[in-house]
């Protein structure tokens, strides 16, 4: 995609999955869009898996279907979650079933690079899209437009700048939005394993000693690990060789899936809660991790970001003809649409993390009793599934 114009309706800053999805959604809405992003990383070797895996909800699937990205994904690389079993740190257990909830699946487990390749292919054929491999380094807001200065010396003019540039967002910093961050003092350790026993399209989660261990079903006889471990423990896990790590995961998961063989190097990323006082600024809208960062215990971070994208694209597609994409009325509509969903999910994930991190026999008994009560209420479980589906 060659550089065609300096004037755009929207400029999306950030080339992750949320940024690329935003660029595709906006350009398919008829908006002349520029995407500031570096080229995609090479695909993993044949037969291997990404270390980064996402659990996509029905709302994310629906968005990708509207953009004609989902249909292009390789079906044999999609892992449906038909059941989920959650174990407390004492006697409690929760079981969620797609069949009982009357839905096709609870989630889809998908490799990051699989989605990214489909997004890249779709973006290459958008006549209204200009893909620029450069970094933004200056932003000035005028009454009629936003002006972005790039590292390559170019200047772009746009009605709206979309900040999709992650938790350490440069765009957010330019708006002056107040960001609050609380470090969980945990690291997410991720790796993929071949398992001895069939996973049966079941996702497993264990709460143990203030840590959370999840095994997510990949196609075939593989699973993806997400271990939210205390930072010191995570450092130890990341130093283990593949066989030692597999042994630790087997022990932590009570050999639920039998012997494990580590098939990708373990990686770690710090976990934190991050909120902003506003999602918008003059001619700026924030989406994805630039707007919020939540604990991964529910696997909802990417889904939350994709719901931002869907809401922004729908708001701009429905705008009155006399309004530009950066009209403050439209931006306030977008922010109002997203506030409740973001606040609810942020509070829920943070509350659960605090609850299971609380030490003491009394706290352990109370939370496991609560889990058992939820497990005995089919209507409550169905409501929880509905909320997770988006």
TrEMBL record:
Protein name per Swiss-Prot or TrEMBL: 2-octaprenylphenol hydroxylase
The protein's annotated pathway: Cofactor biosynthesis; ubiquinone biosynthesis
Membership in a protein family: Belongs to the UbiH/COQ6 family.
Domain of life: Bacteria
Cofactor(s) demanded: FAD
Sequence ranges assigned to domain FAD-binding in this UniProt record: 10-345
Organism: Caballeronia udeis
UniProt GO molecular function: 2-polyprenylphenol 6-hydroxylase activity
Keywords: FAD, Flavoprotein, Monooxygenase, Oxidoreductase
PROSITE patterns referenced in this protein's UniProt entry, alphabetically: UBIH (PS01304)
């Amino acid at each position: 995609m060659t550089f065609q114009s300096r004037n755009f309706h929207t400029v999306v800053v950030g080339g992750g999955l949320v940024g690329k999805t935003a660029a595709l959604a906006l350009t398919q809405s008829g908006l002349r869009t520029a995407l500031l992003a570096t080229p995609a990383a090479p695909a993993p070797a044949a037969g291997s898996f990404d270390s980064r895996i996402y659990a996509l909800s029905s709302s994310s699937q629906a968005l990708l279907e509207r953009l004609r990205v989902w249909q292009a994904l390789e079906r044999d690389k999609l892992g449906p979650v038909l059941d989920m079993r959650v174990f407390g740190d004492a006697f409690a257990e929760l079981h969620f079933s797609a069949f009982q909830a009357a839905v096709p699946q609870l989630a889809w487990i998908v490799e990051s690079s699989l989605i990214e390749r489909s997004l890249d292919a779709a973006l290459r054929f958008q006549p209204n899209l200009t893909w620029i491999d450069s970094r933004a380094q200056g932003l000035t807001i005028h009454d009629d437009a936003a002006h972005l200065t790039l590292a390559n010396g170019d200047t772009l003019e746009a009605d709206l700048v979309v900040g999709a540039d992650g938790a350490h967002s440069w765009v957010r910093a330019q708006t002056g939005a107040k960001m609050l961050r609380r470090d969980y003092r945990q690291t997410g350790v991720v790796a993929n394993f071949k398992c001895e026993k069939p996973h049966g399209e079941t996702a497993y989660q264990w709460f143990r000693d203030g840590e959370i261990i999840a095994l997510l079903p990949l196609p075939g006889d593989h699973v993806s690990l997400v271990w939210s471990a205390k930072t010191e423990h995570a450092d130890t896990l990341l130093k283990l060789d593949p066989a030692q790590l597999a042994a630790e995961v087997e022990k932590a998961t009570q050999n639920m899936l039998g012997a494990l063989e580590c098939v990708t190097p373990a990686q770690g990323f710090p976990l934190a809660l991050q909120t902003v006082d506003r999602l918008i600024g003059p001619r700026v809208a924030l989406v994805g991790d630039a707007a919020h960062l939540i604990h991964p215990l529910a696997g909802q971070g990417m889904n939350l970001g994709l719901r931002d994208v869907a809401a922004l694209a729908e708001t701009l597609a429905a705008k009155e003809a006399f309004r530009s994409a950066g009209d403050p009325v439209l931006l306030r509509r977008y922010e109002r649409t997203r506030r409740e969903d973001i606040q609810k999910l942020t509070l829920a994930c943070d509350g659960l993390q605090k609850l299971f991190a609380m030490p003491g026999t009394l706290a352990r008994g109370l939370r496991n009793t609560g889990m058992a009560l939820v497990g005995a209420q089919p209507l409550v479980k169905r409501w929880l599934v509905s909320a997770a589906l988006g």
